[in-house]
Write a structure and sequence with these properties.
- The structure holds 2 protein chains of 2 kinds.
- By secondary structure, chain A is α+β, with helices and mostly antiparallel strands.
- Chain A contains 20 helices and 30 strands.
- A 7-stranded mixed β-sheet of chain A has the order 3-7-1-14-11-12-13, sandwiched between helices. Chain A has a 5-stranded mixed β-sheet with strand order 9-17-16-15-10, with helices on both faces.
- In chain A, strand 20, helix 14 and strand 21 form a beta-alpha-beta unit.
- The radius of gyration of chain A is 27 Å and the shape is globular.
- By secondary structure, chain B is α+β, with helices and mostly antiparallel strands.
- Chain B folds into 3 domains: 159 residues, Beta-grasp domain (Ubiquitin-like (UB roll)); 76 residues, DNA polymerase, domain 1, CATH 1.10.150; 224 residues, 2-Layer Sandwich (Enolase-like, domain 1), CATH 3.30.390.50.
- In chain B, helix 3 runs parallel beside helix 5, helix 10 packs antiparallel against helix 11 and helix 17 runs antiparallel to helix 18.
- In chain B, 57% of the residues are buried.
- The chains are: A alpha+beta, B alpha+beta.
- At the A-B interface, helix 1, helix 17 and helix 19 of A face helix 2, helix 3, helix 4, helix 5 and helix 18 of B.
Chain lengths: 785, 488
């Protein structure tokens, strides 16, 4: 565009805000139709058992019950999975975790459905349970699928670590652990499935990834994809969490609807949601770094074990991202990384905002501070010394040929809060009941799916004859503002105001399969597709304008709802008149846009490749106050700096900054879904603690913009980066305050006060050992305690 | 005796009938009632137990000085009959009749206070209550106003900004203009006692205390409800049928807060948010504890009567009440008696209350000027979290700084709220110094046998309890003057 942006970069209102503040926004549970039935799932009562018998007779005979189904009633594929198809829609002959569905009921009321499900008799033959991923690796562990619990092994290889460790002046070796985290979308899962007139089914619900859910429904019901329509209702949060658990619910509701010929509604209670839904992976991480006295790193050896729970789900992809990013954005010639995922009888684990990065970032950024401590540098200095610059070669052998803004985000964040001055002051503060500390963490993150698989998305921009515009896309809005950003892009290209744009909720039958809305790819992929679509329509409109005015196309422009003379800005017609004229001339008012990502590659065996087509960089700083008598940590200040490429909408970007930091702080300090012997301990928000308004500090955002050729108007990613480094910043701040490092998340009262959690029997997270040449640093650290 | 309830909704008096043909039961929650209406789907269920605030609505009732009193509540914890003679305000009611957004809605739109939007109706209603009650609130008041509303998307910052902007204009919405008309409508609903019968539940809502006592005498198994924030869970979570309910929430006698030269008597049915301003100056330690009790929505319903009726060993307010020397007034048709609170609890959720008795008040003696009291709550989160360990301490020293009297009451350390009597006896008469306190704190372990649960392990609780005693000593010595009395 020859003129400056009128909509891009501005804090436009969200297109969906009005319905949300007035209560008219329709979420999945708000959809009801006449004669609908209520579906209910009977879940396992054993975390691991063979099913000997299911007797549904009594349930089926209850007045008001219209169907009672088991796995035998599924006509097509009985299991689904994005990589490994081993997740049963209803348990076949075995249950593998307590969230497994065993049977389904459809009844006239919710109460009858509940009573009926209680009448189903299931006889189990219990099997031994494995609930600890390290136990699951042992040869005699109970096997969950097949004869090996290890179902993923990703490796990254660079240089020669033996040589690297030999060159080291010292070796730091630490072990870290992270917890299960519940996504905690405030809207519990819900769908309405309706049989359609042509033998198909329509599902309206709280589904994040419509196309993968649709594939599984079609396969389960033996329907063609064009007979299964999934429409996303306004989605009450997802954070990666409404994928497989919704696929399951879609399949079950569709099954009941097709069987009864009636609409079926299913809604999870919060307890059902906690019990069945997948979580963020707990990791056990062993980090071994060789370092030089000048602070450089000669070798990194990394071994991570992810608890995959009962099903494969997204584990292969989540752990791949961990493997690629496991070294952090730091120079090191010799790297050996191995990341494994194993089956257990716990809740299965899958996609959650961050997707394998929050775990490794906790370890990397803790290690970085340990390294700084060892060589007597401050945490900022050590990161600036080792951090990537343009042209750096990553651990996977990828050359970074874009603006590498790691040092920019680090220094701007540090400057904002006076990091170094506070860090030294707190470090040398006298003992007291309440101690302050400050901590920093940074990261680099591959944008979009990378070499995980096909990466392309589509969008449609349709101008109506009155000049109003409808935009639809395969990328979905879960609350992050995708609809707003894509509307802004369409409006910018067409030179119209946002008021003219109506965005449609995604319908699998109306837009092309655009892959999942994950991996912070909404703006970069969906936005690019929307831009292409709008540009197609624009060409058509300008052609019509040229014919109408007799002026050459390249002298015309669309601005502020008018067709204008590009050089003088003279208004030649309104946008509405132009749209009508275009229609009269028989030119298309419809644009379809497709965007395919640049090429990436991965070589499994060699453990290297061009993993992602571009990266983003971020830095967080947390300032804390630790009550050394109770272990309570208050975060009193927080800085979040991220390079987003270009902020399409300043306010939606800030929304990601604030929300991401809050979720990251919950990860660092509060949240833990505990499973003991495969039985979850928390099933609602009384004991699973999310941060409240009282727990989240004022957050200082720093939006860094280095436009990237890969994204629309230079925009990249923001959703996940903002969430992945808050926890290590806090843990590093606790160390600065107390001289004690927390090796296991969350850093709750017990771990901060006592240094370990007491309920567990196994040792979870600790200093493994310091090599002989590392003894001195231990001494300096301990002398401060 | 009326067998229907009446309240205002959408500007009209709405009457709900119960009985065998009604789809509503007297223990139907306001949340489920609203969601059964096509025009009130804005209210959302996120947890069904008062922990997320997505179902927040505002209840308005005739308050002092002929004004309406606006309170935010979790509609999932309110039984339908509690709406009687109140105005029920939902997110759908806030727009001006001319279509303009309410100032709190406008500010949330302008400042991106809503992302996914599922928590938004609840946030809107919490902010509306703030707007009506606190012109130009400070940041702490704002944070507190919606600490009972979980939001997973926004990090709260844009919501705080929206609250600041909306409330800066002062309370000037259309509800003020309609206030007299609303009050007239509310006052036209008779102040009847209610006897509501459905297939499985007999629900009494007496309008006078004498009637309530007679009901309790005749129905000793009747479940007494004052605020309902705990009892409602039995219906919504355990799916219990409550055969007989005696709802005391209409009794004005039970909401009285009376003060004389020697004591303050607090009606067992007074919502904690009404109690707080009345005890602020005399019992600051109790005030601080109440300020981290549940959330706004909970404090607008919860009562001391409910806390004492439930008798939970981790009830936040109980240890400090014990430390303050509170007595409990128990009433029946044969009369009233007073029991020191420390003798009220007999075991895990058991008390000395007879089945025919109702807790009618708590009486707090005004402290002598040399009595030092403190309350402490250790929890992982600042608000809306039940205590891991709580402590209520009071101490009187003589001029030689020896302990003349001391009460150390703990919650979360035993099957009931427990005084650490061995420790108290040890300290009595001794010098109040670090050495004595250290020695005393080691005795806590012997005296208490806390459990390990989802909130904390037993060892954590013992260490925390010891540290609380130490913290108490530090504060009495003026050390760490910046330490807040309530450990959050």
């Amino acid at each position: 565009m020859p003129h400056p942006h009128t909509i891009i970069g501005k804090p436009a209102r969200r297109v969906d805000a009005l319905g949300k503040v007035t209560g008219t926004a329709k979420f999945a549970e708000d959809y009801s139709v006449a004669h609908q039935l209520f579906g209910k799932v009977l879940r396992a009562t054993q975390p691991h058992a063979r099913i000997l018998r299911i007797d549904t007779l009594k349930a089926a005979q209850l007045d008001g019950v219209e169907a009672v189904l088991t796995a035998d009633d599924i006509p097509g594929e009985k299991a689904f999975g994005i990589v490994i198809k081993n997740q049963a829609i209803l348990a076949l002959d075995r249950v593998r975790y307590l969230g497994d569905g065993v049977a389904l009921v459809a009844a006239r009321t919710k109460e009858i459905a509940e009573r009926a499900s209680a009448l189903i008799e299931v006889e189990y033959d219990p099997l031994s349970v494995v609930s600890d991923p390290e136990e699951a690796l042992k040869p005699d562990a109970p096997k969950i699928h097949g004869d090996d619990n290890t179902f993923v092994h990703h490796k990254v290889r660079k240089g020669d670590i033996t040589k690297g460790f030999a060159e080291a002046d010292f070796i730091i070796e630490r072990r870290f652990k992270t917890q299960f985290v519940e996504h905690s979308y405030i809207e519990p899962e819900a769908v309405l499935a309706e049989p359609l007139e042509h033998g198909g089914v329509r599902i309206t619900g709280s589904v994040q990834n419509l196309f993968s859910s649709r594939r599984s429904v079609a396969a389960a019901l033996t329907l063609d994809l064009n007979k299964v329509q999934i429409i996303q209702s306004t989605l009450g949060g997802s954070f990666g969490g409404k994928d497989e658990v919704m696929t399951s619910m879609c399949c079950r509701a569709a099954l009941l609807a097709m069987r009864t010929g009636k609409p079926v509604k299913m809604v999870n209670t919060r307890e059902e949601s906690f019990l069945e839904s997948y979580k963020r992976h707990p990791y056990v991480m062993e980090y071994r770094w060789g370092g030089k006295n000048d602070g450089s790193i000669t070798a990194m050896e990394i071994r991570c074990i992810a608890d995959g729970g009962a099903y494969a789900s997204m584990s292969p992809f989540v752990t791949w991202r961990s493997a690629v990013q496991a070294t952090g954005p730091y120079y090191c010639e010799n790297v050996k990384t191995d990341v494994y995922a194993v089956y257990t009888n716990n809740n299965y684990t899958g996609a959650m905002r961050g997707f394998g990065s929050p775990q490794v970032n906790f370890a990397i950024e803790s290690m970085m501070d340990e390294l700084a401590e060892r060589v007597g540098k401050d945490p900022l200095e050590i990161r600036l010394q080792n951090g990537f610059e343009r042209g750096a070669l990553t651990a996977t052998g990828q050359r970074l040929n874009h603006t590498v803004s790691l040092k920019e985000v680090l220094t701007r964040a540090a400057h904002e809060i006076g990091f170094q001055e506070k860090w030294s002051r707190y470090r040398n503060a006298p003992d007291g009941a309440k101690k302050r500390g400050i901590g920093i963490a940074c990261s680099y993150r591959g944008v979009s799916l990378g070499a995980e698989g096909a990466d392309a998305a589509g969008a449609i921009v349709s101008v109506q004859t009155d000049g109003s515009v409808i935009v639809s896309a395969g990328i979905t809005d879960m609350g992050q503002g995708a609809q707003t950003q894509m509307s802004q892009i369409a409006a910018e290209v067409l030179g119209i105001s946002m008021d003219r744009v109506q965005f449609l909720n995604t319908n699998t039958s109306g837009v092309p399969d655009s892959g999942p809305t994950v991996a912070s790819r909404g703006t970069i992929m969906g936005g690019s597709a929307a831009k292409n679509a709008a540009e197609t329509v624009r060409v058509s409109l300008i052609a019509a304008a040229s014919e109408m005015t007799g002026l050459p196309a390249d002298t015309l422009d669309l601005r502020e709802d008018y067709l204008v003379d590009a050089s003088t800005g003279e208004r030649l017609s309104t946008f509405s008149e132009l749209a009508a004229e275009c229609f009269r001339q028989g030119k298309p008012l419809y644009g379809f846009g497709w965007h395919k990502s640049p090429k990436t590659s991965w070589h499994d065996e060699e453990g290297r490749g061009e993993a992602y087509f571009t990266f983003v960089y971020g830095a967080n700083i947390a300032e804390v106050e630790v009550d050394t008598e109770t272990g309570k940590v208050d975060v009193i200040d927080f800085v979040s700096a991220h390079d987003v490429g270009k902020a399409i909408n300043r306010n939606t970007v800030l929304g990601q900054f604030y929300g991401g930091a809050a979720m990251g702080l919950g990860y660092g300090l509060l949240e833990e879904f505990e499973i003991e012997d495969a039985r979850p301990k928390q099933l609602n928000f009384d004991e699973y603690l999310l941060p409240t308004s009282m727990d989240v500090p004022r957050i200082h955002p720093i939006i860094v913009e280095n436009e990237d050729a890969a994204g629309p108007y230079g925009a990249k990613s923001v959703g996940e980066p903002t969430n992945e480094i808050a926890a290590p910043a806090v843990v590093n701040a606790i160390f600065n305050a107390t001289g004690k490092r927390v090796f296991e998340l969350p850093a709750n009262l017990e771990r901060v006060l006592l240094g370990h959690a007491l309920r567990r029997t196994s040792d979870r997270g600790a200093v493994l050992k310091d090599s002989a040449n590392d003894a001195e640093s231990c001494k300096t650290r301990r002398s401060r305690e | 005796m009326a067998s229907t309830i009446s309240f205002l909704l959408d500007g009209r008096t709405t009457t709900v009938e119960f009985g065998h043909s009604s789809i509503y039961s007297p223990t139907t929650t306001v949340l489920n009632y609203l969601r059964s209406l096509p025009e009130h789907k804005g209210v959302k269920e996120g947890c069904g137990q008062g922990d997320c605030g997505a179902c927040t609505v505002v209840l308005a009732e005739a308050g002092p000085a002929g004004r309406l009193l606006y309170r935010s509540v979790d509609s999932c914890l309110v039984f339908l009959p509690m709406l009687h003679r109140k105005q029920l305000i939902t997110v759908e009611n806030l727009r001006h009749p001319n279509g303009d957004l309410h100032p709190v809605q406008r500010a949330l739109v302008d400042l991106h206070g809503s992302q996914c939007g599922f928590c938004t109706p609840g946030i809107v209603m919490s902010l509306f209550a703030l707007y009506k009650n606190h012109p130009r609130p400070d940041r702490t008041t704002i944070e507190d106003a919606f600490a009972g509303n979980l939001c997973r998307c926004t990090g709260y910052q844009p919501i705080i900004a929206a609250a600041q902007r909306a409330c800066a204009e002062g309370n000037a919405d259309q509800f003020n203009k309609g206030e007299e008309a609303t009050l007239a409508l509310l006052n036209s609903i008779p102040r009847d006692s209610l006897r509501l019968e459905s297939a499985e539940t007999m629900y009494y809502r007496p309008a006078a205390l004498s009637e309530a006592l007679a009901l309790k005498a005749n129905h000793p198994a009747g479940i007494v409800v004052t605020g309902g924030t705990d009892i409602a869970l039995r219906v919504t979570k355990n799916h219990d049928v409550l055969p007989e309910v005696i709802d005391l929430s209409a009794l004005d006698e039970m909401k009285l807060i009376a003060e004389d030269a020697f004591s303050i008597s607090i009606g067992a049915g007074a919502p904690l948010n009404d109690v707080m301003p009345r005890i602020h100056d005399v019992f600051p330690s109790l005030h601080r504890m109440l300020s981290v009790f549940g959330s706004q929505q909970i404090r607008n319903m919860a009562t001391f009567g409910g806390n004492l009726g439930t008798a939970s060993p981790i009830g936040d307010a109980l240890p400090v009440l014990v430390a303050l020397g509170t007595t409990v007034e128990l009433s029946s048709i044969t009369g009233s008696r007073r029991v020191p609170m420390q003798h009220y609890f007999t075991g895990y959720r058991t008390t000395v209350r007879r089945p025919d008795e109702i807790v009618t008040a708590v009486i707090l003696p005004k402290p002598a000027s040399n009595l030092i009291t403190r309350s402490y709550k250790i929890s992982k989160r600042r608000e809306l979290d039940i205590s891991t360990v709580s402590g209520g301490f009071s101490l009187r020293l003589n001029e030689r700084r020896e302990v003349e009297s001391i009460v150390l009451a703990f919650g979360g350390m035993a099957d009931r709220v427990k005084r650490a009597e061995t420790v108290e006896n040890f300290l009595a008469g001794r010098k109040w110094n670090r050495e004595t306190v250290d020695e005393a704190s080691s005795l806590i372990e012997r005296e208490c046998n806390p459990i390990s649960d989802a909130r904390a392990s037993a060892e954590m609780r013992r260490i925390a309890a010891r540290n609380l005693l130490l913290k108490f000593w530090c504060e009495t010595e003026g050390l760490e003057a910046d330490v807040e009395s309530v450990v959050q």
